[in-house]
Amino acid sequence: MDLFCTDRDLLAIEPLIFLLGGGPAQELAAGEDGAISATTFSSAASNFGAAGVEPGMVLAASPGAPAEGAAYEIVSVDSPTTLTVSVLRADGEADAVAPPSGIELRFHVRTYRPQIHNVSATMAEKLRQIVEVSGVASADFADSAQLAPACAHGVLATVFVARAESASPADANWIKAEHYRREFLRLQLQLRLAVDADADGVAERTRTLGNVSLRRV
Description:
Layout (H helix, E strand, L loop, with lengths): L6 H5 L4 H4 L6 E12 L2 E3 L5 H4 L6 E5 L7 E10 L2 E5 L15 E10 L1 H22 L12 H17 L8 H19 L1 E4 L9 E4 L9
Antiparallel strand pairs: 1-2, 1-6, 2-5, 3-4, 3-6, 4-5, 7-8
Helix pairs in contact: 4-5, 5-6
């Protein structure tokens, strides 16, 4: 199934979820021998490919306490021990921007891929309903950059609900969970899917996810 956002999209909104422990993140790789030179991150003790590290995930690195570190985009996995990383870019297609250099860095790669999958599946079900109602083949829907922020806010809502487990109602994680839940709903209501079935650059139809009702069959 196609995923509508990546860890990089979460990084753009809530970088601290990659720096701090706890919560529902999956840790794929970690160590204390990290080194950054220009846009290359290396760890001789790691095997990033075998660990499942992929472009679009996030590397957090620090010379000391993790909370004092920084989080970077993973642009590519170049070998079992090296990654190309970048300071968060406004345009994901732009050249990588070198982070500060360092050696003997503590690092980890954490991902929210399971949560991204679940939210993407929920949104994909709404898309399927649109296809059924309108009779437009799914191949006629073009990918939209609007899907990523909507998906990211839905994921963050689930992340902060998990982080708030057993916390009091006034806990900041509950407040953030509610904020992102509301934003997820708002962004879906604003999302417009344009259908250009004949590929002439002009949309013949537009639909919003906000007016699609799900039903069991």
